[in-house]
Amino acid sequence: xxENIRFFKIVEALKEQNxxxxxxxxxxxxxxxxxxxxxxxxxxxxxxxxTLRSMKKSYPQIxxxxxVMGDGDMFVTPISHAVQEDVISDSPIIxxxxxxxxxxxxxxxxxxxxxxRLEERLRLVEHDTDFGDSAxxxxxxxxxxxxxxxxxxxxxRLKE
Length: 160
Hints:
Layout: H1 3-16, H2 23-29, H3 34-42, H4 49-58, H5 64-69, H6 81-90, H7 92-130, H8 138-148
């Protein structure tokens, strides 16, 4: 397979990823016109170093080695997972962010539990009002019942 064919396989992959719209955009990136792109695609013109350089500047994830030699993948991964994990574990700022996220997760968990307790309490209060005086409106009954029951901030009833 020639360099030109591999080049256009990458172009098509970029189009599939919505990173490139059409050959007009490609022509702008490569500082040529649509006819120049057509010449490369049809094999009438070989890829130049300038063409490859312009493409790599615009799309650093493409593999020049794949285009020129046919080796490897079409796209390169900028950082391997092992190196990335080292960077993450060595960064004190990232460590602080993880601690902050864990604290926020714990707070969210606590608030969700409190919300569940309050919803249950409201359900019980609404259930109790169904048996009460039907002359009162539900809104006034709920608000008066909620005001008369001493509770902690977590929703537990206080001893009288």
